[in-house]
Amino acid sequence: MDFKTNVSNTFHRLKVVNVFRSLRARIFVLVFLTGLISCLVVHQVILYNYETRAVDVRKNEVQTQMRILADHLITYGYLQDTTSEVVNAELDLLANLYDGRVMIIDDDLRIVKDTYGISEDKVIISEEVVNCLKNGNSGITSVYDAQNHYIEITTPIVETISSDNGDEEYVRGVILISVSTEYITTTLDILSQKATRIELIIIIVMFVFSLLSANILLRPFDRITSAINDIKAGYTMEEISVPDYLETEHIVNAFNQLLQRMKTLDDSRQEFVSNVSHELKTPITSMKVLADTLLQQPDAPVDMYKDFMQDISHEVDREAQIINDLLSLVKMDKTAASLNISSVDINDMIELILKRLRPIARKQNIELTYDSRRAITAEVDEVKLSLAIMNLVENAIKYNKDSGWVKVILDADHQSFIVTVSDSGIGIPEDSLNLVFNRFYRVDKSRSREIGGTGLGLSITQSVILMHRGTIDVSSVLDEGTTFIVKIPLSFTK
């Protein structure tokens, strides 16, 4: 039972994790929380602004009444005689009107009148009262106590005396009033309840809106997913078009490019299989014809046998060369992890390559030169890179003119080294420049077979350079010559 419970809990946790990994769920949560937080913020701002405004209005009202009362206190001499019925009536009315307490304090800090009737003739020592007596109108204070729901305000009782020097003001006392704010609190509670009801309605609307928004916003991505699934299932190979958003265009364009590359690779694979079949079949067909010819002539002379056997040996060598190149190409198609990277002196490597090829160049009366412009050490696979550069130089020699030349230049910048192989050979037609790296492609098939080419050398070369994160470019002028430029980083990074 415990095992089943653990499995069930684990399954539910995985479901929750997968839900929150969903972009749809994240959009829903984002929109919903944005609306919810906005509602709560607006709620608090409205209540705060109302409370602040209501308190300020109440303060202004009370202060106006207190100034009027202060004038009456001076007029009726209330600080000396508290029996004035008019003033006492005003005090009681003010206290009842604001549901508060009013105290009249003289300049000796003695409470002359208390509407509560409990503190008369007592002395009050309060910072607000003392400050008001000392500074007059500039010492007026008002304190709002939200926790206990009241406002405390002090107003000076000022007597103006005219003299030859002008009017002079004297502070005779202070009016201290405590005003209840219960009605503000009650109104806030009512507003809060109404705002909460409205918020609940808004939250429900936001919940529905968030669900709809998440679904509507992700519909283009759902169409992309559906289209990719159709392609994966083999129902179609058509390109996808979902131009709803800029992001979907980028995704679709990238996928369409990948799809096009897959189609190209598939076509290339089929063409490769066809070419391999043809290239392997041709020498076998030749050997079959030669062998059948000999079998049909049992009395053929020895010289004919020798000639035919030499031709058969040549076809066997050609078949072996094709198989070896194919094996090399298969190895090159593996990932760069198969590279044996080490620090190599590129100058020494190229000099060794040219040393091996100079006998072939002399045999064909080709001038082979090497221009090393700086000492270079790089992180490469020496064996594979040697094969690639050797293919380029060997092709430059083989497909050259009599008494021609081949020049190899080695240079570098701060990131890469550059190997340039140029020749004075037969050149490559412009329409073939983009095809020379294709497997089994030959510009001049008759001459390629004559010199033993398989059409795989440049493909192998390109594979090696790409494995080193490098580039190879070719330029050529027909009947004037060809130039290959290889650029490879000095430091190898996977």
Helices and strands in order:
Elements: H1 2-21, H2 23-75, H3 85-97, E1 101-106, E2 111-114, H4 127-135, E3 141-145, E4 150-163, E5 166-180, H5 182-233, H6 246-296, H7 302-332, E6 342-345, H8 346-363, E7 367-372, E8 377-380, H9 382-398, E9 405-412, E10 416-423, H10 445-451, H11 457-467, E11 471-477, E12 481-489
Parallel strand pairs: 7-9
Antiparallel strand pairs: 1-2, 1-5, 3-4, 4-5, 6-8, 9-10, 10-12, 11-12
State the gist of this model:
This protein is of the alpha+beta class and 494 residues long.
Overview of the molecule:
By secondary structure, the protein is α+β, with helices and mostly antiparallel strands. Among the domains are: 76-184, PAS domain (Beta-Lactamase); 278-331, Helix Hairpins (Orthogonal Bundle), CATH 1.10.287; 339-489, 2-Layer Sandwich (Heat Shock Protein 90), CATH 3.30.565. It is built from 11 helices and 12 strands. It has helices at residues 2-21, 23-75, 85-97, 127-135, 182-233, 246-296, 302-332, 346-363, 382-398, 445-451, 457-467; strands spanning 101-106, 111-114, 141-145, 150-163, 166-180, 342-345, 367-372, 377-380, 405-412, 416-423, 471-477, 481-489. Strands 2-1-5-4-3 form a 5-stranded antiparallel sheet, with helices on both faces. Strands 7-9-10-12-11 form a 5-stranded mixed sheet, covered by helices on one side. Helix 8 packs parallel to helix 9 (382-398). The model is unreliable at 445-452 (pLDDT under 50).
